């Protein structure tokens, strides 16, 4: 009869997906990652007799079906590569630096070391494991493992420089950096290098660097254990006697190939195809730097720590739900990635030993396999429900773990993206850290675990392990993609998420708060403290009229060589306004304008505003169907149209006013006074592109435009001698500031000819001829402008303002190189706001890899929110939401 502790133990591990059976008188088990801890194994050892008796009597605990044995053979003519080796050889042939795949195994040795015995012990290791003397060479069209005859292992001995008191970890780091800078040739070998540094006569640092193509994490434990036993025998003067190896790695590679070719793993391949059907090919994490064209391997590290009380709470949560701590930590990590990236269907890789047969356990080599753990996290799911999904995925993955990851990649992703690791860009690894110190007679051998190796095989890896103090770990990340501060913040988010889960696992996955109160206050209050005085009671045309009274005789507008003073432009716009008022135009009525870029267009815009109306720009280049929709949707009270375009305007029921005739009429020219008109009335209605459906008319009020113009005047300090080129089609909201910013500030507005915005040569000529000081470019148009060979005529330009598209950092640098005296600004704003809502001044000589859209303009609030309109932490993907006076009605 089983004791109560044994019943509890067996019940718990069974729920966690652990399988235990008896084979050749030995207790054997197979478990999902993290399900069978060192404490569990110790428990089994203590109660071995009770377990064997139960396994013998319990027919349900039958052993797993036996697999074909791994046969030994003669490899004098070479052996094929395993699938994992094949991938690493492929990467090496593509020029991936071998240094990215060097595994360091290091230790400090305290006591009086017998260097000769250590050197002999290393030679014993190389003789024992043929993989440690293996090279890789082309034999015809095939790459094979070439096993060199046994020979003495070269141990390089160095000494600490005089006067330098190096610690063992510092010495190992120096050795590592020196060794990885050397050439590692897969074809020539050797692929194992050993360096011993004497720090004091009784203190040494041993570094053993081995290429991953012949080595893995499990092998590191074997190597240190066997080195300890071999050294103890050598020092004692006896011939080392380790149990003979049942097979060599080359035997495994042959067996693996035959096993795959026989189709025995076809069912596992079918499982993975079903499991990964429709999975996104990449996990798109928000990076700090632009992604290189090819994957890089420059790594950095950041430590994380969950204290003991949090570890105990999470362990209790796992046990209550029949799961393992690994599963809880993995589920939390996957949730963190989903919240960070905004991607709810994702995969995370997890390494497993890959030694599915007893014969492979004592063999050094590359056996490690990668489990692809998919998570699909809908918004409404609770964390507890996510745990159930993660457990099922982990258990099923373990049942199908024999299929090599590299074979899976070949089946799932036949084409490779050289920018990223295939299938899994992020890894989660539970490590067996904190191994007991190994004794070498009177010597103490202590492993050195260093986070300073400087390479990253994946974009992000979280390595964790249990320690007496709690859960320890570190993020290994690609330093060409992420800043250290970003990963440090990610680590804080992970611990905060674990704390929330430990308190209440029943919460929805989106209800765990990743921000503390200081962060929340910074985002909501500090960064949005934009309240600034502006003439909130004024309308756009009133600001223009005030400028007319100040500088009536100054040139306001230049069109095709003809100048119009502020007074003349005001008179023309008053004529148009007077006629509109006679039609009964009231505040918020829409008036459509169908015109080419011209002086008449500017007068029409001002005239509509003076009459209290909101202008609706109709671009003559638009398709007829779009113009018809805009007319029907906006229902204007009248349409202003140039005489030359009367024939092109689609039939409409609204009154048509000929702009050319209106400007010739003799009518009172005093500024009209419109009763009831305020800054809360509409100034314009501009239609969206319709890229996401039917074009929408966006209604913007005067106060938003006035705020935008006041902010721009403060930031850019427009002077009366400034000249602004108006070249944006008036159906785009950028034209709003191009028209009105110079006219309310006493500067001069120059109108480009129709379609002139598409001709870089014409623009350069206009800049020189008219003395343009301020110009706007969408980035895609700035490129051909900067491509012009002779930009000398543009030297008088003072400011370039970009918006409408993302501004590449390389383009910003190019402008700075070609026009070093020109200030560059990057602005952002949707049509649903008064032109722009954020701005960023691009510093000269900037080294940014991406140009931000900047900070909010005056009296504007900007938030990044999740799908439930809650603020997300810095670095977490969300949607941009706007508040304040800039927002359209």
List key phrases describing it:
single chain; 889 residues; alpha/beta; six-stranded mixed sheet; five-stranded mixed sheet; 21% strand
Characterization of this structure:
There is one protein chain. The chain is an alpha/beta fold and 889 residues long. The chain is built from 25 helices and 34 strands. It has a six-stranded mixed sheet, with helices on both faces. It has a five-stranded mixed sheet with strand order 28-29-30-31-32. Strands 10-17-16-13 form a four-stranded mixed sheet. Helix 11 crosses helix 14, helix 23 (760-770) packs across helix 24 (779-787) and helix 24 packs parallel to helix 25. The longest helix has 20 residues, at 217-236. The model is unreliable at 59-66 (pLDDT under 50).
SSE inventory with pairings:
Blueprint: H1 4-15, E1 19-23, E2 26-30, H2 38-46, H3 48-57, E3 79-80, H4 83-93, E4 102-110, H5 115-128, E5 134-139, E6 142-147, E7 155-159, H6 168-180, E8 192-200, E9 203-211, H7 217-236, H8 249-261, H9 266-275, E10 299-307, H10 308-320, H11 325-341, E11 345-352, E12 369-376, H12 383-399, H13 405-412, E13 426-430, E14 438-440, E15 443-447, E16 460-467, E17 470-478, H14 484-503, H15 517-524, H16 540-550, E18 555-559, E19 562-565, H17 566-582, E20 590-594, H18 599-610, E21 614-618, H19 624-634, E22 638-641, E23 656-658, H20 659-664, E24 682-687, E25 697-701, H21 702-716, E26 723-726, H22 734-743, E27 748-751, H23 760-770, E28 774-777, H24 779-787, E29 799-802, H25 809-818, E30 823-828, E31 838-842, E32 855-856, E33 860-865, E34 879-884
Parallel strand pairs: 7-8, 13-16, 18-27, 20-21, 20-22, 22-23, 26-27, 28-29, 29-30
Antiparallel strand pairs: 1-2, 3-6, 4-9, 4-15, 5-6, 8-9, 10-17, 11-12, 14-15, 16-17, 18-19, 24-25, 30-31, 31-32, 33-34
Helix pairs in contact: 5-7, 10-11, 10-14, 11-12, 11-14, 17-18, 21-22, 23-24, 24-25
